[in-house]
Amino acid sequence: PGPAASPSFVFPPSLSVRNATMTVYLIERHGAIAYFSKSPQSARRPWHLFHFANYLWYPFVSGFTAGQPGLQFLFLFDPPARIERPPFPADWLAILAHAAAFGEEALDVRDIFRGVDHPAHQKRAHGRLLHTEHAGMGDMVAFWRWFVPAVDALLYNVADAANFTVHGNPEADIDARFAFEHLLTMERVVKRTIASMCVTEVGSAKAAVFEIADLFDTLSKRFCNTATDTEFFKTLFNPSTGLSLIQSRLSGIPGIGDRLAKIAEMVYGQLRDTVLDSIWMRSKATAAGIAVRDRHLHTEIVESPDEFVANVMRAYRNGHHGYFTDSDPQNRPSRYLWMVDGNVPYSITALPALWLLAYIADPGLIGWKPLAIASYD
Is the CA virtual torsion 198, 199, 203, 208 positive or negative? Predict the structure, then answer.
């Protein structure tokens, strides 16, 4: 791949680009970046996954995918395009959307009004993790060389009913119904992950994060990877176990793996610090851990800080049922929600993309062990 001479590329009207003078890399070698053959397999590829990969470094956009079914082209931008949020209100609906907003990260209002370029103003305007730099072109090319075959392998395995057996027993009968339901569930994971990356209303974006964690939790339970319905959900939001689960898988991704692993560490660190700082009764935060009531509300027990964070996130997730202790067999509203002020960092909306990349790298993330491709006993 190399820079094209005098590149000409028309951006969609809705895309705001800070610097439109850029080198456009056209990757078209068969078998190198995107397998641009006119084969039926190429036509079936889920191109929305490739769009997803172009937005990993928000607010930067690393490229654009376009073309005909079976003949897709990937344009990589150097320098990358940049998403800019318009001044408020961008339109009439923005006023109504502002009235509906909830789940905002607590920021000092004085910093927000220091100017449009102030980090606090930018954070409030975008409502998500803002990367300060973009991966280099060489790293992105290395990533794409890995990503396209990895997606191909995943789709091949998802479409192979032999990978799905009754109760996960490899010696049992093929469970074609589960294979189909798994396909539908993973399609929802992908689409909701993309939604968490582009929805501008923070409450909806954070709700998508919880929904995706629920979907992964269900799959983990279905693959006999976890014993209870909430175990994997809490694992994903536990700053230590969640990071451990995905960091090694992310670090193995060519080109950008180490960068992704560091981002995961930062996001989980921000989640941990923000939730622990949101405990308003500081006497409950001790050197031994966080003192909370037991499920019967009779006595206090001490939870580790990371366990407490996971339980608080589960209580926040249950908010879509309402905030009623009587509706929760675990009495979580009276155990956790009363202790915290509700502050959660914007950056948790970056977690689904990291989870999805870790899953693409290794479906064993949820306990799924598909058969080896082109290998027979």
Answer: negative
What is the pTM (predicted TM-score) of this model? 0.84
Q: What does the block give as tokens for 161? A: 């009913």
- Helix residue ranges per DSSP H, 56-118: 92-100, 109-112
- Determine the distance from the C-alpha atom of residue 141 to the mean position of all C-alpha atoms in its chain, rounded to a whole number: 22
The per-residue DSSP string of 305-364 comes to HHHHHHHHHHHHHGGGG-S-GGG-TT-HHHHTGGGB-----GGGGGHHHHHHHHHHH-GG
Buried b (16+ CB within 10 A) or exposed e, 301-330: eebebbbbbbbbbbbbbbeeeeeeeeebeb
The secondary structure element, H or E, covering residue 301 is strand 300-303
| Among 105, 60, 116, 100, residue whose Cα is nearest residue 201 | 100
End-to-end CA distance of the chain: 40
Helix axes 239-251, 257-277, angle to 10 degrees: 170
Quote the CA–CA distance of 251 and 256 in Å, as a whole number: 8
Tokens of 176: 């074609």
- The one-digit pLDDT tens for each residue of the chain (377 residues) are 344 443 333 334 333 333 333 333 344 333 233 333 334 444 445 667 888 999 999 899 998 887 776 677 888 888 899 888 877 777 888 788 778 777 776 766 676 667 677 676 666 666 777 888 898 888 999 999 999 889 988 988 998 898 998 887 878 899 999 999 999 999 999 999 999 998 888 888 888 999 999 999 999 999 989 988 899 999 999 999 999 999 999 999 999 999 999 999 999 999 999 999 999 989 999 888 999 998 888 899 999 999 999 999 999 998 888 878 787 787 778 888 889 998 899 899 999 999 999 999 999 999 998 887 766 55
How many Cβ atoms from other residues are within 10 Å of residue 89's Cβ? 12
- Please report where in the chains the tokens 């909430």 appear, as a residue: 230
d(C-alpha 158, C-alpha 156), whole Å:
6
What is the spatial distance between Cα 127 and Cα 239, in angstroms, rounded to a whole number?
21
State whether residue 114 is helix, strand or coil.
Answer: coil
Please tell me the distance from the alpha carbon of residue 6 to that of residue 238, in angstroms, as a whole number: 49
